[in-house]
Design goal:
- It is a single chain.
- By secondary structure, the chain is mainly α.
- The chain has helices at 38-71, 107-111, 138-150, 154-166, 175-187, 191-203, 211-223, 227-239, 243-255, 259-270, 276-293, 296-304; strands at residues 25-26, 34-35, 95-98, 103-106, 114-115, 121-122.
- Among the domains are: 92-134, no CATH class; 143-207; 226-293, Serine Threonine Protein Phosphatase 5, Tetratricopeptide repeat.
- It has 12 helices and 6 strands.
- Strands 1-2 form a two-stranded antiparallel ribbon. A two-stranded antiparallel ribbon has the order 3-4. A two-stranded antiparallel ribbon has the order 5-6.
- A hairpin with a 7-residue loop joins β1 (25-26) and β2 (34-35).
- Mean pLDDT is 91; it is low at 1-11.
Length: 311
């Protein structure tokens, strides 16, 4: 008795040249058509050329569309300070990385008095989050950071990469090692590391200068929410005349507090490359960002010491 066979149960690959079944030799360009062998592929080439080019074009368009959907989607929000639960400022001077616990804490909470569980004021030379005493020397700080690197902390790994790039804190200047560490940190979610790799390729630091690779790493960083990388992508698009794409990048960066992007949109509005609506939305986005990161505690820290500036 014959049994019914589904399409999935039988090989339906047919040679485009001779019509025989079980063709396994795929067109190298479009990957859509199969042949028995190289001879059939060569014989059919002139007939398939136009169709092949169309397949390749459509595949490229689909890939570009999917890429842009990913690139221009809403970026992940900046993390909150683990103490005051307000959004962390974009500027690095408005936050501090604590190697003791691996937390990034806003300048306001770093500057503010520290209290124990009973509400009593305690030594301010302690981490506001984990209460570990602040390292008394650079050597002690680096020892803490090494432990964080061993624990797989992406920020600590990224910082170690920067030490090797600059040849500071006792580390040799070694760009290969810096790039290796940044790659690892980026894969663990530290988007600034990908931004740094992008700068290395743009400027030819330890690698051959390659704008395409720089753009690739900035795109990885931007997709992960890094506004500096997003701004760089906007500049790239502006340079080659893709103003519409540049505006899209700048608008996203402004939402994350990138002030230079706001300036670029203002300039676009002035010369007619952006609409009044674009500029209004950009201003509103930036004001919204400031509302999320501002606090009396952070203002107090910034007023007391310029190193705590956060916007």
């Amino acid at each position: 008795m014959l049994q019914n066979m589904s399409t999935a149960d039988k090989d339906v690959s047919v040679c485009a040249n001779c019509g025989k079944d079980n063709a396994t030799n795929t067109c190298n360009k479009c990957k859509m058509v199969k042949y028995c062998n190289a001879a059939c592929k060569k014989k059919h080439r002139h007939k398939h050329k136009k169709q092949c080019e169309e397949h390749v074009r459509l595949a490229a368009e689909r890939a570009a569309k999917l890429h842009d959907e990913k690139l221009f989607k809403k970026t992940p929000p900046e993390e909150d300070c683990p103490i005051c639960f307000l959004r962390l400022p974009l500027l690095e001077s408005g936050r501090r990385y604590k190697a003791c616990c691996g937390k990034e804490i806003c300048s306001g909470c770093v500057y503010a008095p520290v209290y124990d569980n009973q509400g009593n004021k305690v030594d301010n030379e302690k981490c506001p989050f984990c209460r570990t005493p602040t390292p008394s020397s650079e050597k002690e700080m680096l020892k803490m950071e090494r432990k964080r690197v061993e624990a797989g902390d992406p920020i600590a790994i990224g910082k170690l990469g920067s030490y090797h790039r600059d040849g500071r804190n006792g580390f040799p200047q070694y760009m290969d090692r810096a790039l290796e560490l940044w790659q690892r940190a980026g894969e663990l979610g530290y988007t600034k590391a990908y931004t740094n790799i992008g700068y290395a390729f743009r400027n030819g630091l330890g690698v051959e200068r390659d704008i395409k690779k720089a753009t690739y790493y900035w795109e990885l960083a931007a997709i992960g929410g890094n506004s500096q990388a997003r701004y760089n992508l906007g500049v790239n698009e502006e340079i080659v005349g893709n103003i519409e794409r540049a505006v899209k990048h700048y608008m996203i960066a402004v939402r994350d507090g990138e002030n230079d992007s706001l300036k670029q949109i203002k300039e676009f509005y002035s010369n007619g490359h952006a609409t009044k609506e674009d500029y209004t939305k950009a201003l509103q986005s930036y004001q919204s960002y400031l509302g999320e990161v501002k606090s009396p505690q952070r203002d107090e820290a910034a007023a007391a010491d310029d190193q705590y500036r956060y916007y």
